[in-house]
């Protein structure tokens, strides 16, 4: 053994059972460290005393790489004869701003969407996408798996040959297969989708904001866009009306000619001619330029004037049309200047004809939709990470109220598809709202009308807490707390156009030592705001220091009887209970706590600590991946979008410390752990703060990353390597684990362990382990495994794996050269 050139790799337990003084001093130092503030107390058997973090330069910005290079060169040139010590290495701290998106090609090698839908491409040979399916399939990357989640759930995958899991639903000719037993063409799981017709109107500023403009005029708010919208809307209405007039004249004249011909031919007599054969076309418009469509005799107005909500509406219209056939046929002058009659609730809701300034009736507060917010768990609107797939998971785990990511009002009015995507709602979200960011009454009032007319939401939230510099400098987000008069105008305008409750999320104030929320909340309550959420930090604080719940309590009393929710530092059911008992808040909003442990909603409702296993956490990640493929698509672009948002979530999820590893429960949100290992390899991998390990987890779910893939973590500290340095110097750079057939009492079908490199340059190409589960206490038999090849040339006769109580201990025994065993 001594001549083999390799020393036995120590187990994790050996690091703590060694009686040497060095290890004992490390233990004492670690214990003293954990006794201090801000550190989580981990059980000694899970601590990694020999861990030394190193920077992984791949996940650094160019400026940080240059800084490290300069520090290294400076230390190399250090003169040992001088008394000056070498420069200390600077720790990576802070955030990476202006992070680039994933660098994968979005156009190259993609198949045309029209071809996927089995339609003819209108661009023909000029189309930049592939039209030949066989050519596309030859260049397409290999499928990730042979089971498509979308096909197995819905019976049809709309991505067809482009699906990265398409083996299961493509025939030999690459035609899409449909499982008619479960396929439902009318199934609609997501609402609030931006349609092309609406997007074009927003692009061209032709959307009719008559209702919002009327409110703004009443408030005395002037906007440079008001005239533009009204002019473009009038032109669009005129075009629509002229088209309708031509269709009406053409249709009636043709019908009259047909009946005349039938009379002359003896098929019909005069008694058989009735207006029942003529379908009246009534086009409703309130614009002054659309007066030429239809003019009805004054004597018939009392018949056609039908009260909103009348149950006899359809009968009255049909009877009137039949009894006044001659009047309808001859009352359309070529250039009539009379204004057309509006027909109650049958007025057209399409195009720009909905609720214009002439017909808008403002609802009283008693008539608006009410929501009981009290004692509900509210998942905070979270930028980037609070996406629809994540909200679905939180909803299943117990969240009561969900809200979309912050959407910028000006971008919504411009019809930006990426901004409208933030407003989508899943069918499982029974109490759902959208959060809008803006700084001016005209912008947000128009947004309010747009949301009211086009979306299905239960409430609308105004963001008054965003601390981002770009938003703040535009007078939006938390800047509105310093401009209360303008904020009141915004609230007044939005409550006038909305039929659903208006809520506001704010911070304690702008400056750290100057809380102003308690002065703003009563004024908002008096303007009709339904609920306010207070985050217990100021804009200047960001996430430093603990949330001020004493001040949240003061705000709750200042806003009474209006519901006031509290937000900040909730990571356990004890935290939630304490805040609700000690303060007068009506409910709890959870933000980072839900990102770190989305099962917090279950813990609060069931009043227990959930020692969730690595298997259960991995299943949550699998659920997110499936939701992401359903939401963003299962083609290459959809897979990479899902991967990106999964990595963003893992940057929070890795901060969770399993309950079974803690000496003191619960974990506090401001506590960080020393370096530790989990109870199994998968738990250890999930606890890694290294961005490289997050990517490995994503590869277990979504396949290998594409060539040229890059991901810059939000926090610079996540660029450190996750290495476990054993006493003898061997370093495990990465361990990827894939577990199949999970579940209590079931066998582990396969455990794949891949060790890429050891510091001694011995490269394990492949290690395959088959593990059989024995008994209730997770006892495992020892299994001998052969290793195919070592690059260094050593012949490996046997590798023994022993697993006890979910703890993987690797004992490597290297033999003498072949023939000397």
From TrEMBL:
> What family does the database annotate?
Belongs to the dus family. Dus3 subfamily.
SUPFAM superfamilies per record: CCCH zinc finger, FMN-linked oxidoreductases
**What EC number(s) does its UniProt record assign?**
1.3.1.-
Q: What is this protein called?
A: tRNA-dihydrouridine(47) synthase [NAD(P)(+)]
Cite the residue ranges of zinc fingers (C3H1-type). 106-134, 142-172
Entries under CDD domains matching the protein = DUS_like_FMN
GTP-binding recorded as keyword: no
Q: Which GO terms describe its molecular function?
A: flavin adenine dinucleotide binding; RNA binding; tRNA-dihydrouridine47 synthase activity; zinc ion binding
Cite the record's Polar residues compositional bias ranges: 1-14
InterPro entries reported in the protein's UniProt record = Aldolase_TIM, DUS-like_FMN-bd, tRNA_hU_synthase_CS, Znf_CCCH, Znf_CCCH_sf
Instruction: Report the source organism.
Output: Potamilus streckersoni
Residues of the region (Disordered) are 1-36, 61-105
Q: GO:BP terms for this protein?
A: mRNA processing
Q: Which UniProt keywords apply?
A: Flavoprotein, FMN, Metal-binding, mRNA processing, NAD, NADP, Oxidoreductase, Repeat, tRNA processing, Zinc, Zinc-finger
> What SMART domains does the record point to?
ZnF_C3H1
Q: Where is the composition biased (Basic and acidic residues)?
A: 19-32, 61-86
Question: Per its UniProt record, what PROSITE patterns does this chain match?
Answer: UPF0034, ZF_C3H1
Q: Which cofactor does it need?
A: FMN
Where do the C3H1-type domain residues begin and end? 106-134, 142-172
Briefly, what is this protein's role? Catalyzes the synthesis of dihydrouridine, a modified base, in various RNAs, such as tRNAs, mRNAs and some long non-coding RNAs (lncRNAs). Mainly modifies the uridine in position 47 (U47) in the D-loop of most cytoplasmic tRNAs. Also able to mediate the formation of dihydrouridine in some mRNAs, thereby regulating their translation.
Give me the stretches of Basic residues compositional bias. 87-98
Does this entry carry the keyword Phosphoprotein?
A: no
């Amino acid at each position: 053994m001594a001549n083999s050139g390799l020393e036995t790799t120590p187990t994790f337990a050996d690091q703590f059972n060694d009686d040497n003084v060095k290890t004992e001093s490390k233990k004492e130092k670690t214990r003293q460290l954990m006794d201090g503030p801000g550190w989580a107390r981990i059980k000694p058997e899970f601590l990694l005393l020999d861990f030394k973090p190193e920077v992984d330069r791949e996940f650094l910005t160019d400026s940080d790489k240059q800084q490290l290079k300069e520090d290294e060169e400076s230390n190399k040139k250090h003169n040992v004869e001088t008394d000056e010590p070498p420069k200390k290495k600077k720790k990576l701290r802070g955030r990476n701003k202006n992070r680039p998106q994933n660098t994968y090609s979005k156009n190259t090698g993609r198949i045309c969407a029209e071809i996927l839908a089995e339609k003819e491409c209108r661009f023909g040979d000029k189309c930049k996408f592939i039209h030949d399916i066989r050519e596309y399939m030859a260049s397409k990357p290999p499928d990730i798996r042979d089971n498509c989640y979308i096909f197995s759930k819905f019976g049809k995958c709309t991505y067809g040959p482009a699906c990265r899991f398409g083996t299961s639903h493509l025939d030999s000719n690459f035609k899409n297969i449909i499982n008619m037993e479960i396929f439902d063409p009318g199934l609609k799981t997501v609402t609030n989708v931006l349609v092309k017709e609406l997007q074009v109107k927003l692009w061209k500023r032709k959307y009719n904001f008559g209702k919002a403009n009327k409110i703004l005029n009443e408030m005395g708010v002037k906007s440079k866009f008001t005239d533009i919208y009204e002019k473009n809307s009038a032109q669009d209405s005129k075009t629509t009306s002229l088209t309708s007039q031509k269709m009406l004249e053409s249709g009636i004249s043709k019908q009259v000619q047909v009946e005349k011909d039938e009379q002359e031919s003896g098929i019909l007599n005069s008694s058989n001619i009735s207006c029942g054969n003529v379908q009246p076309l009534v086009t409703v418009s309130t614009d002054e330029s659309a007066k030429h469509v239809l003019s009805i005799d004054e004597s018939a107005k009392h018949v056609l004037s039908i009260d909103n909500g009348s149950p006899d509406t359809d009968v009255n219209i049909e009877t009137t049309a039949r009894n006044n056939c001659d009047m309808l046929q001859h009352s359309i002058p070529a250039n009539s200047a009379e204004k057309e009659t509006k027909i109650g609730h049958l007025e057209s809701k399409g195009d720009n004809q909905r609720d214009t300034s002439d017909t808008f009736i403002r609802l009283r507060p008693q008539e608006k939709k009410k929501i009981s917010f009290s004692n509900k768990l509210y998942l905070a609107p979270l930028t980037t990470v609070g996406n629809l797939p994540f909200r679905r998971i939180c909803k299943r785990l117990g969240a009561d109220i969900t809200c979309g990511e912050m959407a910028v009002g000006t971008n919504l009015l411009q019809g930006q598809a990426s901004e409208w995507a933030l407003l989508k709602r899943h069918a499982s979200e029974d109490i759902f709202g959208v959060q809008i960011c803006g700084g001016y009454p005209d912008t947000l009032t128009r947004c309010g009308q747009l949301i009211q007319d086009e979306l299905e939401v239960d409430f609308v939230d105004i963001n008054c807490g965003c601390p981002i510099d770009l938003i703040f400098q535009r007078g939006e987000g938390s800047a509105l707390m310093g401009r209360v008069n303008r904020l009141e105008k915004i609230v007044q305008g939005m409550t006038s156009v909305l039929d659903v409750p208006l809520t506001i999320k704010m911070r304690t104030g702008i400056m750290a030592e100057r809380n102003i929320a308690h002065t703003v909340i009563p004024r908002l309550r008096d303007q009709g705001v339904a609920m306010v959420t207070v985050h217990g930090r100021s804009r200047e604080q960001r996430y430093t220091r603990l949330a001020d719940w004493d001040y949240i309590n003061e705000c709750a009393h200042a806003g009474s009887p209006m519901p006031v929710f509290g937000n900040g530092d909730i990571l356990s059911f004890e935290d939630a209970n304490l805040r609700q008992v000690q303060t007068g808040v009506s409910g709890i909003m959870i933000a980072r706590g839900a990102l770190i442990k989305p099962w917090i909603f279950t813990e609060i409702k069931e009043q227990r600590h959930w020692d969730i296993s690595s298997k259960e956490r991995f299943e949550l990640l699998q659920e997110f991946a499936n939701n992401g493929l359903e939401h963003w698509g299962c083609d290459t672009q959809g897979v990479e979008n899902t991967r990106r948002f999964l990595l963003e979530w893992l940057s929070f999820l890795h901060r969770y410390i399993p309950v079974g590893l803690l000496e003191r429960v619960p974990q506090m949100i401001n506590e960080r752990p020393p370096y530790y290992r989990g109870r199994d390899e998968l738990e250890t991998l999930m606890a890694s703060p290294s961005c490289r390990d997050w990517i490995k987890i994503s590869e277990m779910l979504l396949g290998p990353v594409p060539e040229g893939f890059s991901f810059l973590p939000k926090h610079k500290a996540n660029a450190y390597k996750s290495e476990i340095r054993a006493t003898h110097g061997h370093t495990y750079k990465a361990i990827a684990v894939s577990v199949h057939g999970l579940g209590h009492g079931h066998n582990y079908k396969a455990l794949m362990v891949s060790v890429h490199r050891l510091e001694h340059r011995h490269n394990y190409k492949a290690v395959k382990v088959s593990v059989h589960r024995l008994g209730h206490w997770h006892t495992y038999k020892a299994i001998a495994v052969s290793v195919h090849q070592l690059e260094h040339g050593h012949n490996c006769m046997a590798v023994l794996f022993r697993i006890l109580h979910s703890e993987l201990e690797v004992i490597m025994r290297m033999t003498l050269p072949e023939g000397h065993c």
